[in-house]
């Protein structure tokens, strides 16, 4: 079930990236710099679909060539990282065990439960709520 939900979300998300009139700073160069908002949206979707104990995490490392902070989703004792391929050090799929070698390079800084208000960015007034709702509409229409 989890695999199917993530694939449905991912497909609709990529279609919305192509068609959206507004992407905002975080999504304009997906997957680069898009991990926070992508993880927040995926966590919201999975939580709404009844997947229990869904969280997204904020993590930090100093062992990568580019970037030090990265976000991903944890659900059903699985890491789901739709933006890991932005790092040249990452090899693999978006579904990983909790002891993933790549993700083990990070120290977890925070764990957050899905919340629609997390899609609002107070520092620049952007909101990704419309983008998220368009993704969920695409899923419903497939």
What does this structure look like?
The chain contains four helices and seven strands. The strands form two sheets. Strands 4-3-2-1-5 form a five-stranded antiparallel sheet, with helices on one face. A two-stranded antiparallel sheet has the order 6-7. It has 142 residues and is of the alpha+beta class. A hairpin with an 8-residue loop joins strand 1 (55-60) and strand 2 (69-75). It has a single domain, classed as Secreted effector protein ssei fold, CATH 3.10.670.
In terms of DSSP E residues, the strand content is: 15-25%
Overall CATH architecture: Roll
Number of domains: 1
> Mean of residue pLDDT?
93
Q: Which sequence of strands runs across the widest sheet? A: 4-3-2-1-5
Structural class: alpha+beta
* End-to-end CA span: 16 Å
Order of helices and strands: HHHEEEEEEEH
- DSSP helical segment count: 4
CATH class: Alpha Beta
- The shape is globular
Radius of gyration: 14 Å
Record keyword descriptors for this entry:
alpha+beta, 142 residues, 34% helix, five-stranded antiparallel β-sheet, Secreted effector protein ssei fold, 20% strand, two-stranded antiparallel sheet, single chain
In short:
By secondary structure, the protein is an alpha+beta fold.
Topology:
Elements: H1 2-19, H2 24-27, H3 35-48, E1 55-60, E2 69-75, E3 78-80, E4 95-97, E5 107-112, E6 120-121, E7 126-127, H4 129-140
Antiparallel strand pairs: 1-2, 1-5, 2-3, 3-4, 6-7
């Amino acid at each position: 079930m989890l695999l199917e939900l993530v694939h449905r979300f991912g497909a609709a998300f990529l279609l919305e990236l192509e068609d959206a009139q507004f992407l905002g700073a975080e999504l304009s160069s997906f997957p680069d710099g898009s991990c926070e908002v992508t993880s927040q949206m995926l966590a919201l979707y999975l939580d709404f679909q009844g997947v229990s104990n869904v969280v997204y995490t904020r993590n930090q490392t100093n062992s990568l060539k580019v970037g030090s902070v990265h976000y991903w989703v944890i659900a059903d004792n699985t890491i789901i990282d739709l933006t890991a391929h932005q790092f040249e050090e990452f090899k693999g799929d978006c579904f990983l065990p909790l002891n993933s070698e790549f993700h083990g390079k990070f120290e977890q800084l925070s764990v957050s439960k899905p919340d629609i208000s997390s899609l609002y960015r107070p520092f620049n007034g952007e909101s990704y709520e419309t983008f998220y709702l368009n993704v969920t509409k695409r899923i419903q229409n497939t």
